[in-house]
Specification:
heterotrimer; A alpha+beta (about 850); B alpha/beta (about 250); C mainly alpha (about 210); A: about 850 residues; alpha+beta; ten-stranded mixed beta sheet; 20 strands; elongated; C: about 210 residues; mainly alpha; 7 helices; about 5% strand; binds adenosine-5'-diphosphate; binds magnesium ion
Chain lengths: ~850, ~250, ~210
């Protein structure tokens, strides 16, 4: 293109000439970009904060941890590391960050802390500590703690010599502040230094460490040392591992993906809108474009011209979108912070601007505009110079629509076959069905409009007929508009079906978990990484209560299989079935739990089975703290706490042996016969006073709150559907407005021959309604297909969910569709009715 | 030496079984600096002939020579270039871009040809001067009268200094006064700048400005009229001016 | 063209010598006037007899003819009536070309197409000439001349359109057989010059300029 400047100038003038339309079209881009941008500046920040909270940034030259993050005995590793050449000093550390109970603490606003147990002498050879006040730890200190100087900001009452209680695995313990370290750090998660034995006691891990910190000799080659260390220790250890993945990380990433998908869908609808507008533009400017061809513009130049125009809208839309996205992000953070914290404790939300977020939003916005503009632009390039000179020859609408109808029907038939195949193919089927509907839409307009117009006639009498013929004149545009609405409504139905199905699933699974009388939970129930549980003392004390008959617990470790992260839960196969159960899809309650007691065996969740492709009887080589171990699968099942995670259940005995873990993170208990709920609860609570990291619930109540909150979380699905519906509404508004602009002269004639304002208004409203009904009809079809496909695909994920026909969703979709149509019709109808007759007649 | 020549130019529309010949073996040649008017009843193929000559459409058979180049064998891009550089079109409906000012419209072919905007605008101003429209340069088409719009369109056709201007009923949409202005402007480009011009018209008054009139019927030339120069001016004067007197 | 009313119109402006009237007569318009001095004198004399003009002898003048003519009230009334009477154009169906055409349709050595074509060429040449004249004429300075040229243009245009129309009708006209002439009727068709026949445009003849 020779002269982009000129093209831009013309584009700007054209856009400026039709400001309303430009604004409506641009909004489409604004919306998608805003959504994507908002998502990408909030969630990655959350993830980063989360990762950071887990990573152990120390001042040491090198750190060594177990691959599973598990603790280990120092004797097994320290001497080996000591001997490696280039290693100057070595010290063993037991460190962990955990969430503090929500109840008030001496540490002010800190929501979690990191506790590091050290040997003061060896540690000081590895890294330097600066003490700003008081003194550093001494080897024989007990209960002494060094706190960061910055803590004064959140807990001003703390000074040298003050004491405060802190949760531990064995109940509350009290510590005395002996010094302030000058170390910087996050105040939402202060770092406390204690003597190693204190921390080992607090975590219930006597004699264990989980990190080795190393200082290198001057001039030593870090890479060579790292290699030599690993060679000495074997592959159960890693160097500078930091925080390996964890389940919250995966969950956040999954939601990032889903949300981005929604943004992309919104942009897709935006693209529809732009496509629609530009098709109109090209038709409108047929003469101008033909003339440009006549005076020597090449096809390429014409195509570029239209592309520049759509790109310009893309640029404007993207810029506004970025701004709106930022505002949306701020609002989102404000609104969601609370909800989010209860699910992923320790993750704080905030806006993190990143080049990536900006670039991806900008790229998507511009690409969408370009892509949507491309086809009309190409069509514009094909305009013959003669088009400028001859009256438009009426194109054979019928033939074009008939061929696309055939393509659409073929696609839909194919889609139905795919849907019936189930599994992941079904998702493909749902998408193919949608595409088929879009293709078939222009061909369906006529018959469907004819079908529905008797309905309209009831209300609108003569105007209904006019409205129908208006739509039939532009079946392509009407189809695109209806398709936009269709997608929005289909998504609504899909979401309704998902909520229905997931609600059902949650209820079924909840029955399994909540067979006990009492439920004792840590601050966060889906993320155990940050949980400081309890040692055997708690279980023992509970069992000792006369009101309690049985106690069962869950223990937690993390592991990996073929590079995939797995959560491992330890249960006691003898007591667990007495208080809870799993929903089995392979194996049975009796046999699987029995098998869990014998040798290295595991029950996996459906999600784990499907992602890792596991079946009953398979043997897997599981990464453990003490090297790879072979486990046999003896069942596939899950409960409400594990259904969204790839999880393995093993016996607590195996967990102690292979993962060095004996800490209970969640407990369930049954009352003795005849014990009243209130009395039993009171008894349990006396014990739990020493373990404030746990909360005690009566299971019945807890079940309800859990099911409720989970269901409430599903509301976000409806929110997403709403986000998709908004551009659909815009599309409808856009089409109607463009229709009216195009028919200005015609409306002038109707008015001139005696049509009343009211009649004109009714024509446009009827048109909007017809489009709405049409879109809703398509949307219902597509929505049913999509929901069937997606829910069918759940089974591929390991969740056996019955397909429940989303009647309510369908009714809602129809109502919403018609309402959107009526609403979108208001403005255009009013402006059509108010057209000045003389000016309308002169409109060119 | 001809500027443009057609050779057995034929254009067929309609189906194989029921062909409609818009042009049939049209042979016609236009000399440099010549002003040719094409006349004929409606539907006789005048426009078709003009469009084929200007490379707006492709013939069913036959050739169009623009100087020594056969434009009927060119690909679309080459043809666009020819239109841009060697041919100026003027149409019945002025076909100005509504969002551009007169001068920007006139500069359009130059800009499409890669002339930098300032130069293009400068040359466009000159072309506007040539059609007596310099004082309306920055007006939008909607702010110009029909005659002014058509003159702007003529300026656009002139801007690239084309080898030939092809005008299809340029006065068809104008009142007689504007029509006279427009055709006078066209005649002047021929007289003063040696422009070659082919013009399709229905209007004898317009055709009378031409040097030659070609009459077309059913897609072929049926008659041709070479108009002699005005050396007989005195004769006309005498003839017209002799007022018959009578007593009375 | 009426000499009488031209003289009256000139005298209406101001009284003049006969000699002066003669000069005005030929210079007032760009046209050539085909009138002799004797004709002016005799016309003046006749009008004096009719009471339309009067004259007095100018004492001071030493010109050979010292009569200064002026218009009388009667003359003024006559002049006004003349102005107010519309001129009716002559439809010359006896026009030679019309006859040529009709005869060629009825059959002759030259087909009517060629007759039309030859006529059209001539008309276009004339139109071309007039157009060129017109282009060279400054409308502000030579308005009467321009008006005349315009009139010629439009008549030529009308003639050309008529030829166009004849051409379009030729296929139908070729089947035309004239009605058998009644035995007693002889000679040329009658002249139609009455205003009532004005609407009979299709038969309007070309008027030679
Ligand atoms: N796109 C077309 N399709 C079919 N016939 C056409 C087309 N364009 C022109 N014609 C026919 O070709 C003949 C010549 O048309 P045209 O050149 O436009 O005539 P003119 O300009 O002399 O009025 C006409 O009979 C017309 O119907
Ligand atoms: Mg034409």
């Amino acid at each position: 293109m020779n002269n982009l400047g000129q093209m831009t100038l013309m584009a700007l003038r054209y856009l400026n000439g039709r400001r309303l339309r430009t604004a409506l079209t641009t909004l489409a881009i604004v919306f998608g970009v805003a959504l994507i941008f908002a998502i990408n500046i909030t969630l990655p920040g959350a993830i980063a904060a989360f990762t950071q909270s887990l990573s152990s940034l120390t001042g040491a030259d090198m750190t060594i941890t177990n691959v599973t993050g598990a603790s280990f005995a120092p004797e097994s590793a320290l001497p080996l590391v000591q001997d490696v050449e280039g290693v100057a000093a070595v010290t063993g550390v037991l460190r962990r960050s955990f969430t503090l109970p929500a109840i008030g603490s001496e540490l002010g606003s800190a929501t979690s802390i990191e506790m590091i147990g050290i040997e003061p002498e060896t540690m000081q050879q590895v890294r330097q500590f600066t003490i700003s006040d008081g003194r550093f730890l001494q080897p024989d200190d007990r209960g002494a703690v060094v706190v960061p100087a910055g803590i004064a900001e959140i807990a001003p009452q703390i000074e040298i010599g003050s004491t405060f209680p802190l949760i531990s695995a064995a109940g509350l313990r009290t510590y005395t502040v002996v010094g302030f370290s000058a170390e910087q750090g996050s105040l939402s998660q202060p770092t406390l230094y204690l003597n190693l034995p204190d921390v080992q006691a607090a975590f219930g891990q006597p004699g264990q460490i989980n990190t080795i910190e190393i200082a290198l000799s001057p001039g030593a080659d870090a890479a060579a040392v790292s290699e030599a260390v690993l060679a000495a220790l074997g592959d159960t250890y890693i160097v500078d591992g930091g925080a390996a993945g964890n389940e919250a990380f995966a969950a956040v990433q999954a939601s990032l993906l889903v949300l981005n998908l929604m943004g992309v869908l919104a942009l897709f609808l935006g693209a529809f809108l732009i496509f629609n507008t530009f098709r109109t533009i090209v038709i409108e400017r047929r003469r101008d474009l033909g003339m440009l061809r006549a005076i020597g513009a090449t096809r390429g130049q014409i195509t570029t011209m239209i592309l520049v125009e759509s790109l310009l809208q893309g640029v404007i839309g993207t810029l506004i979108g970025l701004l709106l996205g930022y505002l949306m992000a701020s609002a989102m953070i404000y609104g969601l912070a609370g909800v989010y914290r209860s699910y992923f404790s320790g993750v704080s939300l905030g806006i993190t601007m990143s080049a990536g977020a900006v670039i991806s939003a900008v790229a998507l916005g511009l690409l969408t505009a370009l892509l949507a503009g491309y086809f009309p632009a190409r069509a514009a390039g094909r305009i013959s110079p003669l088009d400028a000179l001859r009256p438009p020859t009426p194109v054979s609408v019928n033939r074009a629509t008939r061929s696309s109808l055939i393509v659409g029907i073929v696609l839909m038939v194919l889609a139905i076959v795919m849907l019936l195949a189930g599994g992941q193919t079904a998702v493909g089927g749902a998408v193919v069905f949608l595409v088929g509907m879009v293709a078939a839409a222009p061909g369906l307009i006529m018959p469907l409009a004819r079908l529905f117009s008797p309905l309209l006639t009831l209300w609108f009498a003569r105007e209904g007929d006019l409205a129908r013929s208006n739509l039939q004149r532009q079946p392509g545009r009407a189809a695109i508009t209806a398709s936009t609405l269709m997608i929005g409504l289909a998504v609504l139905i899909l979401m309704a079906a998902m909520v229905l199905a997931l609600g059902q699933l949650v209820n079924t699974l909840a029955d399994r978990n909540f067979a006990s009388d009492v439920f004792i939970t840590p601050p966060s129930i889906s993320v155990y990484n940050n949980v400081l549980g309890a040692d055997a003392s708690l279980e023992d004390r509970l069992r000792a209560l006369p009101e309690i008959e049985t106690v069962a617990s869950l223990r937690y470790a993390s592991s990996g299989l073929d590079g995939t992260r797995l959560e491992v839960l330890g249960i006691d196969p003898a007591t667990y079935p007495q208080v809870a159960s799993l929903e089995f899809s392979a194996g049975s309650e009796v046999e699987s739990f029995a098998a869990l007691g014998e040798g290295r065996t595991a029950i996996v969740t459906g999600l784990a089975a499907s992602t890792l492709n596991l079946e009953m009887g398979d043997e897997i080589s599981l990464q453990t703290a003490n090297g790879a171990q072979t486990y046999r699968i003896v069942g596939i099942g899950e409960d409400i706490l594990t259904f969204k995670l790839a999880t393995l259940f093993i016996s607590q005995a195996n967990m102690a042996a292979d993962f060095n873990k004996t800490e209970d993170v969640l407990l369930m208990a049954n009352f003795s016969p005849g014990v009243e709920d209130a009395a039993g609860l009171a008894a349990v609570q006396t014990v739990m006073a020493d373990y404030p990291q746990f909360t005690v619930h009566l299971t019945g109540q807890y079940r309800q709150t859990l099911v409720d909150t989970t269901s409430a979380a599903f509301v976000i699905f409806y929110g997403l559907a709403g986000l998709i519906l908004l551009p659909a509404a815009l599309g409808l508004l856009n089409t109607l407005t463009i229709n009216i602009l195009e028919r200005t002269r015609e409306i002038g004639v109707i008015r001139a021959v005696g049509g009343s304002q009211r009649q004109v208004q009714r024509i446009v409203t009827a048109e909007a309604l017809l489009l709405g009904i049409f879109g809703a009809a398509l949307g219902v079809l597509a929505g049913v297909a999509m929901s069937y496909g997606f829910i069918g695909a759940f089974s591929a994920l390991g969740w056996e969910v019955p397909y429940i026909f989303p009647v309510a969703g369908i009714i809602a979709a129809i109502v919403v569709g018609v309402l959107i149509a009526l609403f979108a019709g208001i403005l255009p109808a009013r402006s059509a009715a108010r057209l000045d007759i003389i000016r309308a007649l002169q409109y060119e | 030496m001809f500027i443009l020549k057609t050779e057995s130019l034929t254009k067929k529309y309609g189906s194989e079984s029921q062909p409609i010949y818009a042009l049939r073996d049209l042979n016609m040649s236009v000399e440099a600096g010549e002003f040719v008017a094409i006349m004929g009843p409606s539907g006789s193929g005048k426009s078709t002939a003009l469009y084929l000559m200007g490379g707006l459409d492709r013939p069913t058979s036959g050739h169009v020579w623009l100087r020594d180049k056969d434009i009927t064998t060119m690909n679309d891009d080459a043809l666009s270039k020819v239109r841009r550089e060697s041919i100026g079109f003027v149409f019945q409906f002025f076909n100005l871009i509504p969002v551009l000012t007169a001068v920007e419209n006139v500069a359009m072919p130059l800009i499409l040809d890669g002339v930098p905007r300032p130069q293009a605008l400068e040359r466009a101003e000159a072309a506007l001067k040539q059609v007596d429209l310099a004082n309306r340069a920055s007006h939008r088409p909607s702010e110009l009268s029909g005659g002014q719009q058509q003159r702007a369109a003529i300026a656009r056709a002139l801007a690239a200094k084309p080898a030939i201007i092809l005008a299809d009923e340029p006065t068809g949409n104008l009142d007689s006064r504007s029509s006279d202005e427009v055709v006078a402007v066209l005649r002047r480009t021929v007289d003063d700048f040696g422009q070659t011009l082919v013009l399709v018209t229905h209007d004898p008054r317009v055709a009378a400005h031409a040097d030659r009139i070609v009459f077309i019927k059913d897609g072929n030339i049926v008659d041709e009229n070479r108009l002699k120069g005005a050396d007989r001016a005195e004769q006309i004067r005498e003839k017209l001016g002799r007022v018959a007197m009578s007593e009375g | 063209m009426s000499v009488k009313f031209t003289l009256l119109a000139l005298l209406h402006q101001r009284p003049m010598h006969g000699y002066e009237l003669g000069k005005q007569f030929s210079s007032i318009m760009e046209a050539d006037w085909d009138v002799k001095p004797g004709q002016i004198a005799s016309t003046l004399a006749r009008m004096k007899d009719g009471g339309l003009v009067d004259y007095e002898i100018a004492e001071s003048s030493d010109a050979p003819d010292r009569k200064v003519y002026s218009i009388t009230d009667e003359g003024r009334a006559d002049l006004e009536l003349w102005y107010r009477t519309p001129e009716v154009r002559d439809y010359r169906l006896s026009d030679t070309f019309y006859i040529k055409l009709v005869l060629s349709i009825l059959g002759g050595p030259v087909p009517p197409e060629q007759v039309l074509s030859a006529q059209r060429r001539e008309l276009y040449q004339q139109l071309h000439n007039v157009t060129e004249m017109l282009r060279k004429t400054d409308a502000r300075k030579q308005l009467p001349w321009v008006l005349l040229l315009e009139s010629a243009t439009m008549h030529l245009e009308a003639d050309l359109r008529w030829i166009e129309m004849c051409e379009a009708h030729l296929p139908d006209l070729k089947h035309y057989t004239p009605p058998k002439p009644p035995p007693r009727q002889r000679g040329r068709p009658r002249r139609h010059a009455t205003p009532e026949r004005e609407s009979d445009g299709a038969l309007g003849g070309s008027s030679e300029a």
